[in-house]
Write a structure and sequence with these properties.
Blueprint (H helix, E strand, L loop, with lengths): L7 H12 L8 H11 L10 H4 L3 H13 L11 H6 L3 H9 L13 H26 L5 H10 L2 H9 L1 H14 L3 H9 L3 H11 L4 H9 L4 H7 L4 H15 L14 H7 L4 H22 L6 H46 L6 H16 L4 E5 L7 E7 L5 E7 L18 E2 H4 L1 H6 L9 E8 L2 E9 L6 H39 L12 H35 L3 H28 L7 E4 H16 L6 E5 L5 E4 L1 H17 L8 E7 L5 E8 L6 H6 L17 H11 L3 E7 L3 E9 L2
Parallel strand pairs: 8-10
Antiparallel strand pairs: 1-2, 1-6, 2-3, 4-5, 5-6, 7-9, 10-11, 11-13, 12-13
Helix pairs in contact: 2-18, 7-8, 7-15, 7-17, 8-13, 9-10, 9-12, 10-11, 12-13, 13-15, 14-15, 19-22, 22-23, 23-24, 25-26, 26-28
Length: 741
């Protein structure tokens, strides 16, 4: 053999050619097997795990992409199959489609046969390395050893792809001279497949131990591993390579004598019997694995072309379907943007007409309609209704119209169900009163629904009548949301009117003012509270639900936070309504004879839960002749807990005592409970309003002020009474009278 050195520039050029490879190629027979799995109707990554972990090209590409996804596969936890189970199906498709097929359109080339022989050798080394690792476990992970054995000759595979003629000559020369592949490669290329394989492994970011096995499996690994324990995997691969070559499975491209297996086995603490067992099972194991890969598939190239044709046709159909779905999703996304922007533009203080104008302008702009008229149904005992008209270029004006006398303002056919009507057939009264000319042949009419009833309608010129079916569902969703928002705004306006009337009522001279404590005034307040809760509850549920739906589909953080605020504030209002309903319509009491001490103890526990104060200084004294009262115990416990909570909150610094006494009332038919604190107390004005609903002496926004109002309400329903005495800076005493049998 001539002793001449290769030009370093030539060696560098070879390295550059090899490093340009983004992946290895797989055999046509493997591609057929993979495509057959890929075309199944329910494709899962686990379906192709057996193929990927037996093919060098697919294994290397998968490991590289897993690393790019910031996943770690190394050491004791290495498991390619478990990693595949966690990956989405499209990831596995990407792996396969990024790998070329070796000689797919050059079936006459003998290179395919050589590539098959190299694949069989790699498969034999992988199976053998796994068996060796299982014997020396836990010092070596069998799955890691399998992958290292499968990829140990990727340098040769890369040479066969990037420089096919040179590689074929190297193999022939090694065969004719009985030399090792590394020797001939160094002679002609200036470097060998172990260095080239190492460079590729580093570029593809394969696990470090696999890189070591690729690089060192032809070195003196016994001596190297003594100072570098992590190189032990190269010992395993070198022993596996020796056994595979001695067994004559496949072709490695080297024709020198393999390393003595016994010496390497001894360094790994593997005895002769274990070594023979590995040798004997290897041929059958490789035969089974090669069947999985289809390495003996006849006419593999022609079959591959047929499968590719089938796959291309199917992918074309799927692409057409996905394109249609994509267009539909883009349309739906655009509609959601319209709804989202409308919701986010609403000011909490905006009135119904302002919201109606906002919606009508956005409607015209988004759907590119002509003129728009949005009107709300007239309020009770009113003959006029409010309408917003949007002319061209978003010019708006507010008009007041006379409600039709003989027909409903919203046609019966859409009063409770959504539909798109021709406006000229149903709303002639509307256009007679408007001073703008709608094109009635193109004008449509739709309801604004909330809680299953129309609260108004929108009429607009539809410039693209052919799109009516395409837009129908989007129109239904948008008008439903607008209807719910407008319904809440109208209800809020009603409640504001109620509040103003109530305030005006309270402002009357005292000699003509009926006291809030009278039964008639309380009943009026209860009726108002129930009405308010009923008006607000359904629209609030719709707003909260829509906001949650939009939040789930939104990706922009700022808009998600705004939608979350809408949802949270709707929830707060809903909880206020629950307290209002609890005050206005409490359950009818179910009185039973109940121990007084038990009621007080349960009230203490409930107070701790409500206030978060686990232990407070409560002093309870129950007279010996007091046993029980005849009340609904659950209601009275809740009422007393509210009184306790107020007493605790009266202390501005550290908690002071809350004293409770229970004695027989002078009348003999009642038990008198007195609850006293030494807190901040109340002035005369605060004391007068203390049991009024929603009154609170605290800053606005802190509490709803229902505690004492609710307590007084349920105590009265249980045929008792509540009275408060208080002085600023000296504390408060609440006296509760409860009946007994």
């Amino acid at each position: 053999m001539p002793d001449e050195k290769v030009d370093p520039a030539s060696a560098h050029q070879v390295e550059l050619v090899i490093r340009r490879l983004d992946s290895l190629s797989t055999l046509p027979s493997v591609a057929v097997k993979f495509f057959s799995k890929l075309l199944q109707s329910q494709f899962l990554p686990s379906d192709v795990a057996d193929i990927i972990e037996l093919d060098p090209a697919l294994t290397a590409k998968t490991l590289s992409l897993i690393h790019q996804k910031d996943s770690s596969l190394s050491g004791e936890k290495f498991s390619l199959r478990q990693a595949l189970d966690k990956l989405p199906a499209h990831f596995i498709r990407d792996v396969f489609f990024s790998v070329k097929v070796f000689g797919a359109f050059d079936s006459s080339d003998n290179r395919i046969q050589l590539r098959k022989e190299l694949a069989l050798h790699a498969l034999a080394v992988a199976c053998c390395a796994k068996d060796i690792a299982e014997i020396i476990s836990p010092r070596m992970n069998p799955q890691l050893a399998h992958c290292a054995g499968l990829l140990h000759d990727i340098g040769k595979l890369a040479l066969g792809e990037a420089m096919p003629k040179s590689f074929a000559r190297i193999v022939e020369e090694a065969k004719s001279t009985g030399a090792g592949a590394c020797t001939i490669e160094q002679k002609h290329l200036g470097l060998d497949h172990t260095i080239l394989g190492k460079r590729l492994a580093q570029k593809w970011q394969l696990p470090n131990q696999i890189t070591l096995a690729i690089w060192l499996h032809h070195s003196d690994v016994v001596r190297i591993s003594q100072s570098m324990p992590e190189a032990r995997i190269a010992q395993v691969v070198q022993l596996a390579d020796s056994i595979a070559r001695q067994s004559g499975i496949g072709r490695s491209g080297s024709f020198d004598s393999p390393e003595p297996a016994e010496q390497i086995a001894q360094s790994l603490a593997i005895n002769f019997d274990q070594l023979e067992q590995i040798r004997q099972k290897l041929p059958e194991t490789v035969r089974q694995k090669s069947e999985v890969l289809g390495l003996d598939l006849p006419n593999a190239t022609a079959t591959y072309c047929d499968v590719v044709h089938t796959a291309a046709a199917r992918l074309a159909r799927e692409h057409t379907e996905l394109s249609l779905e994509n267009r539909q999703l883009q349309s739906a996304s655009s509609s959601f943007d319209f709804i989202k922007e409308f919701l986010l533009s609403i000011n909490s203080s905006a009135g119904a007409v302002d919201i109606a104008e906002n919606f009508a302008v956005r409607w015209q702009k988004f759907y590119q309609t002509g003129m728009v008229c949005l009107y709300l149904i007239p309020q009770a005992n009113s003959q006029s209704l409010e309408a917003v008209v949007v002319e061209n270029l978003s010019q708006t004006k507010l008009v007041y119209l006379n409600a039709p006398a003989e027909i409903p303002a919203v046609p019966e056919v859409i009063a409770r169900d959504f539909a798109i009507l021709d406006a000229h057939d149903y709303a002639g009264w509307l256009f007679e009163q408007l001073d703008v000319d709608f094109d009635l042949n193109q004008t449509k009419l739709m309801p604004l629904l909330s809680g299953g009833k129309a609260i108004g309608a929108i009429a607009f010129e539809l410039r693209y009548p052919a799109d009516i079916e395409l837009f129908q569902e989007k129109f239904r969703i948008a008008t439903s949301i607008a209807g719910s928002i407008l319904d809440v705004a109208c209800s809020a306006a009603k409640q504001q009117c109620f509040a103003e009337q109530f305030a005006q009522h309270l402002a009357k001279p005292k000699d003509t003012q009926p006291k809030i404590t009278t039964e008639s005034s309380l009943n009026a307040l209860v009726e108002m509270a129930a009405g308010a809760a009923h008006e607000l509850n359904n629209p609030l549920s719709v707003i909260s639900g829509r906001a949650q739906l939009l939040n789930e589909t939104e990706t922009e953080l700022g808009k998600k936070q705004l939608l979350k605020q809408i949802q949270d504030n709707a929830g707060k209002i809903s909880r206020i309504i629950e307290e209002l309903m609890s005050f206005a319509m409490p359950q009818e009491p179910r009185p039973v004879e109940t121990n007084v001490k038990q009621i007080l103890d349960e009230a203490v526990q409930l107070t701790s839960q409500k206030t978060g104060v686990e232990h407070f200084n409560v002093q309870i004294e129950v007279a010996g002749d007091i046993k029980s009262v005849f009340v609904d115990s659950a209601q009275i416990v809740s009422a007393i807990a509210n009184v306790f909570s107020n007493a605790i909150e009266s202390y501005t610094g550290s908690l002071g005592p809350v004293k409770v006494t229970a004695v027989a009332a002078e009348s003999g038919n009642f038990v008198k409970l007195q609850i006293s604190d030494l807190g901040c107390g109340m002035d005369a004005e605060t004391l007068e309003k203390a049991t009024q609903p929603f009154f609170s002496a605290k800053p606005a926004g802190r509490k709803q002020g229902m505690g004492l109002a609710y307590a007084q309400r349920v105590i009265r329903l249980n045929k008792g009474s509540l009275r408060i005495i208080s002085r600023v800076g000296r504390g408060t005493t609440v006296t509760i009278m409860l009946p007994h049998k």
